[in-house]
Design a protein that fits this description.
By secondary structure, the protein is of the alpha/beta class. It is 50% helix and 13% strand. Among the domains are: 147 residues, NAD(P)-binding Rossmann-like Domain (Rossmann fold), CATH 3.40.50.720; 116 residues, no CATH class.
Length: 429
C-alpha cells in the first residue's frame, strides 16, 4: 500500500515506519526532523513538514495523491512556543483527515491516547479526543488507537521512570496507587499492520495496553531493582501539593513535570486488555517478562543516574560564570586585575575596558546558561573562552600553574565538565 505517515521521526512513528518498510509498504514519511530517521528504505519518501503550518485541508491535498492509507502519529506531551495541543492534536489532524477523505484515501489510523474519552479532563486528552471525534464522523474506514504509556527502544517516558526509580527517595503522589498498563511499542506496530489488512474490521476504537496493570509504586520498585539498587525510602505526597510544586519541574529542566501531567498520573492509565488481544489474536506483551525481569545495561544505569544531574550541571556552570563576573566587578581589587592584564600586554585605557567587558561577558554567559538559551553553541563558546584563558595565562603568568589554590589547574576539570554537559545535553528529547 501507499501510506502517508505523519510524525515519522518520533519514538512511535519511527517504529511504525520500520514495521511498514518490513512489510514492503511504500511510505511517505512526514516529519520535522528527517535527520532522525536513521533507518529508512529506498522506497520511503521523506517529506519534511512543520506540522503547525498544516492546519488547512489545502495544505495536505498535494501530499495525498495515490495514497491508500494515512497514519497519524503527530503528538507532543508538553506545549511550547509554536506548538500547542489544540493545533497539533486537533486542528492539524482534522485537516489531514478531511483532506484524506476528499482524496479518496481508504483507511485512516489515528494514534490517540488512553484517557481521550468522555471523562477527559486535561487539555492533552481533550485535544486528542477532538481529532478522534472528527475522524469518526467521516465516511471512511477509521481506527482510533489509544495507547497507554509506551515502552521499548527509545521510549522517553520509561527513561524518566528509570531516573525516578534511581533516586534514593521516592515521592509517591497519593501513595503511588495509580494503576498503569504500559504497552510495548511492538504491540502498537503489530496493531497497525493488522489494521492495514483488507479483512480487518473497520471503525474501531482500541485501547492499546499491556497484558497486566501495575501500580506506580510497584513500577518504581521494580525498575529500581532492575537497576541493581537496594530498595529506596518512600513517602506519600498529596496530589494537590504535587500539582502546586510544578515549579520544580522547570528548575530541573523537566517539562513533563507540570500540573496537567501530574493530574493525568493521578487518574491512572489502565484499561481492559481483552479487546486488543482479540484483535491481534494473542495477548499483548507482559511488562514483567519484556522489561522488568531483564537487568538494566550499563547505558541505562548511566542514563538513569545522570538524568537529574543534568540540570545540576547547568545550574553550577551558570553560577560559576555569574559569580566570576560579580567578583571581578565588585570584590576583587581592580589594581591586581590591572597587574594581571599588564602581564598580557593590556595597559592604559584598554585595561578597564577589558576588565569590565570580560566581567560583563561572564555574567551574560551565566545568565544565558541559566535560561537554557541555545545551550549547545553556548557551551562550545564557553569551552573556547576557557581554553583561550588557560593558554594566555600559561604564557603570560606561568607561575599560576604552581599556585596552591590552583586557579589555572581547575580549568582542566572545568573543561571536562563542560564536555560532559555538552554530551548529556545532546541526549535531550
Amino acid at each position: 500500500m501507499n501510506i502517508l505517515l505523519t510524525g515519522a521521526s518520533g519514538f512511535i512513528g519511527h517504529h511504525i515506519l520500520q514495521a511498514l518498510e518490513q512489510q514492503n509498504h511504500k511510505v511517505t514519511a512526514c516529519c520535522r526532523h528527517p535527520e532522525k530517521l536513521i533507518f529508512k528504505s529506498k522506497s520511503t519518501r521523506i517529506l519534511q513538514l512543520n506540522f503547525s503550518d498544516m492546519t488547512n485541508t489545502s495544505d495536505w491535498r498535494p501530499h495525498l495523491q495515490n495514497i491508500d492509507a494515512v497514519i497519524n502519529c503527530v503528538g507532543i506531551i508538553v506545549e511550547s512556543k509554536g506548538q500547542s495541543f489544540q493545533s497539533l492534536h486537533a486542528q492539524v489532524p482534522i485537516a489531514l483527515f478531511k483532506a484524506a477523505e476528499q482524496a479518496g484515501v481508504k483507511k485512516i489510523i489515528q494514534i490517540s491516547a488512553l484517557g481521550a474519552d468522555d471523562t477527559a479532563q486535561s487539555a492533552y486528552h481533550h485535544s486528542k479526543k477532538a481529532a478522534d471525534d472528527a475522524l469518526k464522523k467521516l465516511d471512511i474506514d477509521w481506527y482510533v488507537l489509544q495507547p497507554s504509556i509506551v515502552y521499548g527502544d527509545g521510549a522517553q517516558s520509561m527513561a524518566l521512570f528509570h531516573a525516578l526509580a534511581a533516586l534514593p527517595l521516592h515521592a509517591l503522589i497519593d501513595g503511588g496507587k495509580q494503576l498503569m498498563q504500559p504497552v510495548h511499542v511492538s504491540d502498537i506496530t503489530a496493531t497497525i499492520i493488522q489494521c492495514l489488512k483488507s479483512d480487518a474490521p473497520p471503525r474501531l476504537t482500541l485501547p492499546l495496553v499491556g497484558s497486566e496493570a501495575i501500580s506506580f509504586k510497584h513500577l518504581l520498585e521494580q525498575l529500581r531493582q532492575r537497576l541493581g539498587k537496594k530498595p529506596a525510602q518512600a513517602f506519600s505526597l498529596p496530589g494537590e501539593l504535587a500539582q502546586r510544586s510544578v515549579f520544580i519541574g522547570k528548575w530541573l529542566g523537566e517539562p513533563t513535570f507540570n500540573a496537567e501531567n501530574i493530574a493525568m498520573l493521578r487518574r491512572g492509565n489502565a484499561a481492559d486488555a481483552k479487546p486488543i488481544s482479540q484483535f491481534l489474536g494473542h495477548p499483548t506483551k507482559s511488562l514483567q517478562k519484556q522489561l522488568l525481569s531483564t537487568p538494566a545495561n550499563q547505558a541505562e544505569r548511566w542514563h538513569a543516574g545522570l538524568y537529574f544531574l543534568r540540570p545540576l550541571l547547568r545550574l553550577s556552570i551558570a553560577f560559576l560564570w555569574i559569580w566570576s563576573g560579580i567578583v571581578s566587578i565588585f570584590f576583587f581589587p581592580p589594581e591586581q586585575s590591572y597587574q594581571f592584564l599588564a602581564a598580557s600586554g593590556i595597559t592604559d585605557n584598554m585595561a578597564p575596558i577589558m576588565l569590565y567587558g570580560l566581567a560583563l561577558m561572564d555574567i551574560i554567559l551565566g545568565l544565558a546558561t541559566l535560561c537554557d538559551y541555545r545551550i549547545r553553541p553556548l557551551i562550545l563558546f564557553q569551552l573556547t573562552i576557557i581554553f583561550l584563558y588557560t593558554v594566555t595565562i600559561t604564557f603570560t603568568l606561568p607561575e599560576f600553574w604552581l599556585h596552591p589554590f590552583g586557579p589555572v589547574l581547575k580549568n582542566i576539570p572545568l573543561l571536562a565538565t563542560l564536555l560532559v554537559y555538552l554530551t548529556v545535553e545532546g541526549e535531550k528529547p
